[in-house]
Design brief:
single chain, 541 residues, alpha+beta, four-stranded antiparallel sheet, 22 helices, 7% strand
Length: 541
């Protein structure tokens, strides 16, 4: 063995002269290491990729808002916002008390122009983030804008991924400097925030896995995928191919689902290599879901959070050399801000308190799915497809210019098509995600219930009877462009995938089950009274 060098002797002497750290000092050093004070953080590329994906999700979310928010909740929308705000004022109070109980910018007013303009502001800021520029101010504005829309969205925003985007966006505010918006700023990403993203991944994936194991028996006998691809909310072009796979592959797919949602998330806090393997399994699972259907923001947003399972050493092998070099330069000059460190520690302590409820929920035999434990949608409970439908009912709206059925015959009815929902059996399933057609989604739920649970469907019928823009903007086309129909109705069908070898080239076979909404006209007294009862028409004079 060679003799120690002079430099090594100097280091040993310095170490010998250094007094041992007290327990409190060791704890402070550990926390400092986590928040990036004492050593460069290995998550510069992690932050870069995570924020680009989050910006992409925000972009599609706000694009959907810009195109649909006014016909959905505008002054003359299907579920107007003003009655909600009026009722909230009476129930929750006004001023700061009302704002705290229902956090939304629209307490100040919700004219259609403001709804649309703020949606486009979200689109613009999302593009800035996608381009690589993000600071706490930009991300805080995006988070608060989207939280404001979710608070007033009613049925149209009652989805787990809307809560998930609020929480993901909130955590991202603490991942970047206050002002420096460069892709690789001087301030290092906090390891505590990375840990909170992993905790989000655990709740997302494990929540979805446990809700299945506690739910539909088909997740135990491995038969859920025999009908899932056909009955999911919005199938895609490859859904039929997935549906027609042999039973043994469907059973294997259920086992893969359990591995990805129950086993893999438990390794999110594990050793580095196991964490990377778990991350790859979970990302691969989400990509399979993207290929097999249209689940809106869910899969893309989940992938953004899963990126926190990877560090620069892993991502550096996948990303261009130019990005690795920029991350290395930023890491060499990196220096944490004391104020940023204090904010991150406060956030972490807040999450320690907020996480009590979701942990108890994961352990409960009465587990809640997609449930917010607070009005800010932080540390929520998540899950998906606890039960699987065996059949696919679909509502199809139709209109006719015939005032009554002719003697001995039927009126000539013409169907309305929606952008993505199965309707015309000849039309190929759409590609939409991460964009969401919210009326299409809600009609999937409405087909399994009745008008009493989804009264806005009667408002949609009234708008179709008048060729009202608030209804027509949500459709794929208008079969009555010159003048509106005299009557409108909604039929209920059972849809099944057609055989790919069907000579007609049809994608679907359908069977009429009955009438979901009886024929109504613009002067139908029952329809008018129904709409007035909900405040969607002024009282009769």
């Amino acid at each position: 063995m060679s003799a120690p060098t002079d430099e090594e002797r100097a280091e040993e002497e310095a170490a010998a002269d250094t007094p041992p750290l007290t327990p409190l000092a060791r704890l402070a050093a550990r926390v400092g290491s986590l928040v990036g004070e004492r050593e460069p953080s290995p998550f510069w590329l992690t932050r870069f990729v995570l924020l680009r994906l989050l910006g992409l999700v925000y972009l599609f979310a706000f694009l959907a808002l810009a195109n649909q928010i006014v016909p959905l909740v505008g002054k003359e929308g299907l579920l107007p916002i003003q009655p909600l705000l009026d009722g909230a004022t009476e129930r929750l109070g006004s001023g700061w008390i009302g704002f705290w109980r229902m956090p939304t910018l629209f307490w100040l007013g919700a004219p259609d122009g403001a709804l649309e303009a703020l949606s486009w502001v979200g689109v613009a800021l999302s593009l800035v983030v996608v381009a690589g520029y993000a600071n706490s101010i930009i991300l805080a504005v995006l988070w608060f804008l989207y939280t404001s829309f979710v608070a007033i969205g009613q049925d149209w925003f009652a989805y787990g991924w809307d809560m998930q985007l609020c929480e993901t966006g909130f955590l991202a505010v603490f991942l970047v400097p206050l002002l420096d918006g460069r892709p690789f700023p001087r301030r290092p990403p906090s390891r505590l925030v990375i840990l909170l993203f992993r905790w989000l991944v655990v709740r997302l994936m494990l929540g979805a896995g446990l809700i299945k194991l506690r739910g539909d028996p088909c997740w135990h006998d491995l038969t859920c995928l025999a009908t899932h691809f056909e009955t999911q909310p919005l199938p895609g072009p490859l859904s039929r191919a997935f549906h027609l796979l042999p039973d043994w592959l469907h059973a294997g797919g259920v086992l893969v689902n359990h591995a990805a949602e129950v086993v893999a998330p438990l390794l999110a806090f594990g050793p580095r290599r196991l964490r990377h393997v778990a991350g790859l399994v979970m990302v691969g699972f989400q990509l399979t879901l993207i290929a097999s259907g249209n689940l809106s923001l869910l899969n893309w947003l989940t992938i953004a959070a899963i990126v926190a399972c990877f560090d620069d050493g892993f991502l550096g092998r996948l990303l261009p050399r130019r990005l690795r070099a920029r991350a290395d330069r930023a890491r060499a000059d990196g220096m944490a801000s004391p104020w940023q460190t204090a904010c991150v520690v406060a956030l972490f302590l807040l999450y320690l308190v907020l996480s009590v409820a979701p942990i108890a929920n994961l352990m409960s035999s009465h587990q809640k799915m997609n449930y917010p434990f607070n009005r800010w949608n932080l540390a929520s409970a998540y899950g998906a497809f606890g039960s699987i439908d065996r059949e696919r009912p679909e509502i199809v709206f139709e209109g006719t210019r015939d005032a009554v059925d002719p003697p001995g015959g039927q009126a000539h009815w013409v169907e309305y098509d929606l952008p993505c929902k199965p309707g015309d059996p000849m039309r190929r399933p759409c590609i939409a995600a991460p964009y969401q057609y919210r009326l299409d989604w809600q009609l999937w739920f409405a087909a399994k219930a009745g008008l009493s649970q989804y009264p806005w469907a009667a408002n949609l019928a009234w708008k179709l009877l008048h060729n009202h823009p608030a209804g027509l903007r949500l459709l794929a086309d208008n079969p009555f462009p010159d003048r509106p129909p005299r009557r409108v109705r909604a039929l209920l069908y059972r849809y099944r995938f057609a055989d790919p070898d069907d000579p007609s080239g049809a994608w679907w076979r359908r069977e009429l089950l009955g009438t979901w909404l009886p024929p109504v006209s613009a002067d139908d007294p029952a329809l008018l009274e129904f709409l007035r009862e909900y405040g969607w028409l002024p009282p009769a004079r």
